Amino acid sequence: MTGERPPRVLVVGATGSIGRLVVTAAARHGLAVRALVRNVDRARPLLPDAEVVPGDLTDSDSLTAAVQDVDAVVFTHGSANGAYEEVDYGGVAGVLRALGDRRARITLMTSINVTRTEAGAYQGLMDWKRRSERLVRASGLPYTIVRPGWFDMTSPREDRLVLAQGDRGSGAVSREQVAEVLVQSLLSDTAVGRTFELFAVEGEPPADWAQLFATTAPDQRGSLDGAGDLAGPRWPRNHRASAGTSRRCRTADLDPHRPHHS
Which pLDDT score is estimated for 34? Predict the structure, then answer.
């Protein structure tokens, strides 16, 4: 949704360390916040600023009610037990499927190093996060993809935000800064269609968010990769598109070596 503030935002991963901050920031900016959680009773005391609704990212049928009437979705979720395909990727696929033809604005948080091939023990996580990015780009929905640097390794005066592209840099950023950028990306048309890494350095905080987002290049129309990214690996031949994949996200859309048609 572009041109106005989305009145109702669904936060996926709302009880996580970033998700809780996104809920607070979105409410502070006057947005109506809906939080997707697995355990409603446990989550309500943690999220007083949100409408708390149940849903399981590994069960796409459970997401239909959660996305009803939403105008934007912020993804801050992640698997804590290595279920990267089912949660990090499958959760995005499931929500997109549940949205159907609804043109919600999407903000997806992934990570720096998501395009790297030397991530060691984290390679599986990085690969599935990158595939989730491709689902969002292939969906045809207005989106912003944010790849934060290392959490909570910033110094007290590091308030200036740097948006980089190509996934070649490294740096740190606070969780509060990440949450603010995720919400601000919903409020600025300039952020639409862009993928960037997020770091904090010494200096003043942003005074003009549209100007900050404009320091990045938009993703190439029809591409499955972010601006400046190196081409990724071919989609596995024996992998079927997730059952949660929407009509917008065909198997061909997930393979960077196949032609893409918008």
Answer: 98
Give 152: exposed, middle or buried? Use CB within 10 Å, 0-12, 13-18, 19+.
exposed
Domain ranges for the chain: 8-254
Confidence check: pLDDT of 214 > 90: yes
Q: What is the DSSP letter of 202?
A: S
Distance CA 230, CA 222 (A): 15
> So what's the architecture of 8-254 in CATH?
3-Layer(aba) Sandwich (3.40)
Length of the chain: 262
Look up residue 41 and give its two tokens: 């009773």
CA distance 53 to 6: 18
Pairwise CA distance, residues 210 & 82, whole Å: 36
Instruction: Tell if the pTM clears 0.85, that is, is over it.
Output: yes
Please report which residue ranges of 17-109 form alpha helices under DSSP H.
17-28, 40-43, 64-67, 90-99
Report how far residue 180's alpha carbon sits from residue 104's, in angstroms, rounded to the nearest whole number: 19
pLDDT band with cut points at 50, 70 and 90 for residue 152: confident
